[in-house]
Amino acid sequence: MRKRTWEKTEAAIAALASAENEEPPTSRGRSGIVRYMFDLPEQARQERDALVAAANRLNGALPVRTLDASCVHASSWANRHSSAFLSQEYVALKEEIRSSGGNVQPIKVRPIPVGSPRAVLPGATEAAAPAQQYEIVYGHRRHRACLELGLPVLTLIEDLSDAQLFAQMDRENRQREDLSPWEQGVMYDRALQEGLFPSMRQLAETLGCNTATVSRAVALARLPDEIVVLFASPMDLQTRWAAPLTKLASEGLQVGLEQARTRLKGNPRMTPSEIFAALTATDSAAGNRRFNANPETSTLCLGGRRIGEVLQDAKSGTTVRFYEKLPLPMFSAVAQGIQRALDKF
């Protein structure tokens, strides 16, 4: 009797165990391999969410790569005058890049599709072109320095349309305030001539500029060569001169040119302001009066090139002005030199 009772008890326990094992996977009894298999989707969701969060944190970040400088070339919208690569500021930048072993601040480029006419450098054939080339969005001087030094160039890479490239290049230059009005005007004029923008107003609105500022810059860029070559560099041209020089070009160019050339023969080191005054004088007598209105002017030169001037008048006092920002060592030397001169009195 006792044996039969024990056998029934074992059978009941076995039946309960069997019933538990046969429950659907959704029950609370899920365990072991079954639980692992049903937990996989949840793990995948968690991993996916982590990847999405990481992607969101990196949203907007651009890939940074070191490229062979020979595979990167100037933009078709490049607005640097050749004299910008001869300035003391550029020499100082190049030395800084040399001592650092490369450009610490990346330039920005866009990839040029393989097979595009833009992917062939001037003087090269399509067969000789590298597999991938890049066009500069901004950072032309940093790239030129790396190229001349034989160093790779650190870059940010972004695929941009022509309009996006133009807008980013302009924004970068205006934030850095290192483009002359004439260079800015050349850039704007080229964009208008090539149809990148339908009008000057549309260009200004897209770039967030004042239309009058764009108009004056373009006017400087469109001045006749006969006027521009009178200055040591077109970068000497100032925005406020745009209207009178444009008027001169349309109404009395030959008279103004004759007056300025006569003055330059007598004084080859005339300052940009003096050349402008000679150009815009209405007649020879007026030209004499305007030219001599500020006789206390001395030109500062470096290597035969005008780099600044010392002006003095009753209203403004004495001013030392350089046409470009000086490298820090030169700035310190100039300040010390002025102080030494003052100490003698």
UniProtKB/TrEMBL annotation:
SMART domains: ParB (SM00470)
Entry superkingdom: Bacteria
Span of domain ParB-like N-terminal: 65-174
Gene3D superfamilies xref list: 1.10.10.2830, Conserved hypothetical protein from pyrococcus furiosus pfu- 392566-001, ParB domain
UniProt-recorded Gene Ontology molecular function terms: DNA binding
GO cellular component: chromosome
Annotated GO biological process: chromosome segregation
PANTHER family attached to this UniProt entry: CHROMOSOME-PARTITIONING PROTEIN PARB-RELATED
Family to which the UniProt record says this protein belongs: Belongs to the ParB family.
Designated name of the protein: ParB-like partition protein
UniProt organism field: Variovorax paradoxus (strain S110)
